[in-house]
User: Fold this.
Amino acid sequence: MPPEIQIVHHVGQEALRAVVKRMGKLRCVWRHGVFFRLCGVGKCDNDEVRYSLLIFLLCVVISVTEAADPAGWRVRRNGRSTQSRVIPAGAVRAVTLSTMTSLSDFESMALDRHPLLRMAAARINEARGDQRQAGLWPNPMVGYSGEEMGNRGTTGMQSGFVWQKIVMGRKLKLASQVAAGRVAEQQHLAKVSRTRVLNGVRVRYYDTLVAQQRVELTRTMSQLGEELAQA
Assistant:
């Protein structure tokens, strides 16, 4: 049954309940012959009973008219009936199946395009570069200096030098091991990020499946309700 008809029935039922509560008082009026006064013969002292009787008669008229033409009593909006257009379930399933994407497809898309995973990969490359640099000797320095050149026709004082820092005590190997630990740390963080991304995709995927099943169930229940209302 559509909600508009349910509202009409609800209003009618509430009015009928109000009339039933006052039936005892109405019977008392009938016993004393005041019924003729309610019809206009005389003056009624109890206005509440008169209103109850009028509401009762109005509800009877509405119920009889609605039973004769149920579709005519449905509320209209913008001059059109509120009956919704029913889409065949087969067509909906065909469209859904044709455009369906599997969980593995969504996981592949997330692994290829998620910015968090790209950041993790960049940090791993940075840590590997630091590891490589930590195991190398410092770069040498080559320099040249000259003073008083051309003074009194002389060449002046010219000199050159080569500077190299010598690291001892296996410090280069230790620094390389520390950098390797940082690489392993970044790789572990990348695995954590990958697991979080996959878990998020799976949770959203199954939430979407549940929502889709709810939509299909609601559509089926709506069609069943319309069939029962038209029966």
Q: What stands out?
A: The chain has two domains: 3-73, 89-147+156-230.
